[in-house]
Structure formats: structure tokens, C-alpha cells
Design brief:
single chain, mainly alpha, Mitochondrial carrier fold, 10 helices, about 0% strand, globular, transport, membrane, MCP_dom_sf
Length: about 290
């Protein structure tokens, strides 16, 4: 039949589909492991962002609540990171496969992973914003009394409009995730190849490339995360937009960049560990699935 694939083409097509399926699965498992490792760092940073506290004060807050509550709220970020990692790596690989044959004539091949990452980051943001919203409410200690459980939060959010409920903060989240994914996938392979060229093992090279990429991403995009945390920390109240929320945040930090970046050091540390582990596990799984 005209237009049908020959056996070799058919096998290559099946292999391409399998690679993409593996990318979804491997992205999810990599994110699962890294999230469990860095969650205490994440919670400390979140407290700094919403309470404008130094590291010692944020740690003191968490210690006063006890070890039982240290992983309070982990279900939402765990689900979010698993889903986000699944979508991010799987969609990036899928988009990259779709772009590669038709785009090489007018787009540099080296830019394709970054462009695919941008598209995957947009989808990830749309799907994962509700999870981040629930997570933010759970991790705000001031919500313990009137919003103590996932169920109570879901009930309250269901009563809100999507824009002020589950999808509050969607715009800055989309900007942060899309730009971060663009940078991460654009730098991931060049960094890995460079580091591996120094004589380090593939696993260590992947870990270091993930760490270095996260450092480039974390600091410039950190203000967006602070805006998101403050927009999402409560239900109800004044429904401010992104610009109004930024102005309020900037005033509350006394127009000080150093106060705005409070928690930034832990963000870099957390991101380095998280993306280092995620990248190493993902690349290792990719290698063994070839």
C-alpha cells in the first residue's frame, strides 16, 4: 500500500514511541526520589518566603511544630513533582521528536531541546498549578486551625472561582516553569558533555550538570517563586493580580533586594540537590533503556 512503512521504518517508529513512553516514566520516578530528599529544605524556604524570616527562625518554627509535622503537606508536592516530572521529561522528549525532522532547516539543532523544554514547561504549569496551590496552603502554618487537612482545603477551593482558587498564581508559575525548563534543557546536554570530558563518570557528570543548570535557573527566577508563594498562601481576602501582588511584596520587603532574596541560599542548595539527583537518575534510566 502506498505510504505504508517498510519493516525498518515500522521498527524505528515503535522504538521512538517506546523512548517517549520511557521518558514519561523515568521523569516521574526521578522526581519522586528527589522530592522526598529535599522536602525539608523546600518547607524551610517556603516559611522564609511567606514570613520574611531568616533561616534560623524558619527552622525554629518547624522544630516547634515537631517532627510529625515536618512532612505535613508532602503528599501534594509529591504528587505535583511526580506528575510534573512525568510531563516535563516526557513531553519535552515527545516535542523534540516532533520538531527534529521538520525544524532543522530553520532552527539550530542545538536550540531544539530548549524550545521543546519551553513547551513542556507551559503544559506542566497548567496541569500542576492546582497542586502547588494546595501545597502552599498546607505549608503555611497560619492555616493549621481553619484549613488543617487536604479535604478542608479542597472544599474551600471548590467554592472559589478557578482564577482565585485552584489557579491563583498561574501566570507567574507559567513564566517561571517555562523559562526554567527552557534553560534547563538547553544547558543539560552541553554541561554533561563538558563535565564528562574532564574524566568523570556519566552518573557524576549528569548530577553535576543538573546542579549547575539549577544554579543558573534558581537565582534569577527566585522572585517569581516568592510572588507565587505569597499569592497562594491563603484563601479569600483581597484578590490581587500579579502586578499588585508584586508591589505589595516589594513594599513589605522594604524595597530591599536582599530581603526579597531571603531564603535564596537554601533555594540554590535545594535546587542543586533536587535537579542533580533528578538529572542523574533520569540519565541513568535512559542509558539502561537504550
Amino acid at each position: 500500500m502506498a505510504g505504508s512503512l517498510n519493516p525498518k521504518q515500522d521498527e524505528e517508529s515503535r522504538n521512538d514511541q517506546m523512548v517517549r513512553f520511557h521518558s514519561f516514566f523515568q521523569g516521574g520516578t526521578s522526581s519522586l526520589v528527589s522530592t522526598l530528599i529535599v522536602f525539608p529544605f523546600y518547607k524551610t524556604v517556603f516559611r522564609q518566603q511567606i514570613h520574611n524570616a531568616v533561616v534560623s527562625e524558619a527552622v525554629k518554627q518547624l522544630c516547634s511544630e515537631g517532627h510529625v509535622k515536618l512532612y505535613r503537606g508532602v503528599v501534594s508536592p509529591l504528587l505535583m513533582k511526580i506528575l510534573g516530572g512525568t510531563l516535563l521529561f516526557g513531553l519535552q522528549d515527545t516535542i523534540l521528536h516532533q520538531l527534529s525532522p521538520s525544524s532543522q532547516n530553520f532552527i539550530s539543532p542545538s536550540a531544539l531541546p530548549a524550545l521543546a523544554g519551553f513547551g513542556a514547561g507551559v503544559v506542566e504549569a497548567v496541569v500542576c498549578t492546582p497542586f502547588e496551590r494546595v501545597q502552599s496552603l498546607l505549608q503555611n502554618g497560619k492555616n493549621d486551625r481553619h484549613l488543617p487537612t487536604h479535604k478542608s482545603i479542597v472544599v474551600r477551593l471548590n467554592a472559589q472561582r478557578l482564577s482565585s482558587g485552584y489557579y491563583r498564581g498561574l501566570l507567574p508559575i507559567t513564566a517561571r516553569n517555562a523559562l526554567g525548563s527552557f534553560i534547563y534543557f538547553g544547558l543539560k546536554e552541553p554541561l554533561r558533555v563538558t563535565v564528562e570530558g574532564l574524566g568523570l563518570s556519566p552518573l557524576v557528570s549528569s548530577f553535576i550538570s543538573g546542579m549547575l543548570g539549577s544554579m543558573v535557573i534558581s537565582l534569577p527566577l527566585y522572585p517569581l517563586s516568592v510572588v507565587v508563594a505569597n499569592m497562594q498562601k491563603q484563601v479569600g481576602g483581597e484578590d490581587k493580580g500579579v502586578i499588585a501582588s508584586w508591589k505589595k511584596l516589594w513594599e513589605s520587603r522594604q524595597r530591599s533586594v536582599s530581603l526579597l532574596y531571603r531564603g535564596g541560599s537554601l533555594v540554590v542548595l535545594r535546587s542543586c540537590i533536587s535537579w542533580g539527583v533528578t538529572t542523574a537518575i533520569y540519565d541513568m534510566q535512559q542509558k539502561y533503556s537504550e
